[in-house]
Design brief:
The protein is of the alpha+beta class. 47% of the residues lie in helices and 15% in strands.
Length: 167
């Protein structure tokens, strides 16, 4: 008889345990989800900066000089095709800079092996908020995403070859 009464005394225990544990578990899951999304978007921004730097490093495409506007377009196209159209259309700021050569204005005017940087920033605002998946903004206090890629210019240098044989 004691077995039967013990079974009836434990009814509803699972429901009470679930009611206590489930809110904590859901909050942790949303936090992991949000952090995972920010890591994904950060990787997309880093790859977009790398794509812009790779384009700028060549200096020329099909004998056409690469300009800063072409680098910006390439970065925004990468962001858009990777699933961040709001960041690409209005929010992304692309900066191309070179400290090695004072006359460097566009990638096509760079000297061979000049160091340059491409910085992509998605500032606070609608474009940044569109990168989030959840509405739990207190979990992520970041207000911008930024990535800087350092690269070297691969412009061809002029090589003069003396075809005269030495005496």
């Amino acid at each position: 008889m004691s077995r039967i009464s013990n079974r009836f005394d434990r009814t509803g225990v699972v429901a009470v345990e679930a009611a206590v544990v489930l809110p904590v578990l859901v909050i942790l899951m949303f936090g992991v989800w949000e952090v995972g999304r920010l890591v994904q978007v950060s990787q997309i921004v880093n790859n977009a900066a790398r794509e812009g730097a790779r384009l700028a490093a060549g200096g020329y495409v099909n004998s056409q000089p690469i300009t800063s506007a072409m680098v910006t377009t390439a970065v925004r196209d990468y962001l858009s095709s990777s699933g961040l159209p709001a960041a690409a259309s209005s929010g992304a700021q692309v900066t191309l800079s070179c400290n090695a050569s004072p006359t460097w204005s566009d990638p096509s005017s760079a000297l061979p092996l000049d160091n340059f940087e491409v910085t992509v920033t998605i500032p606070a605002g609608a474009a940044f908020n569109s990168t989030r998946w959840t509405l739990l903004t207190p979990l992520t206090s970041a207000n911008q995403l930024s990535s800087t890629v350092a690269w070297r210019s691969l412009n061809n240098s002029e090589i003069v070859v003396d075809t005269a044989l030495p005496y």
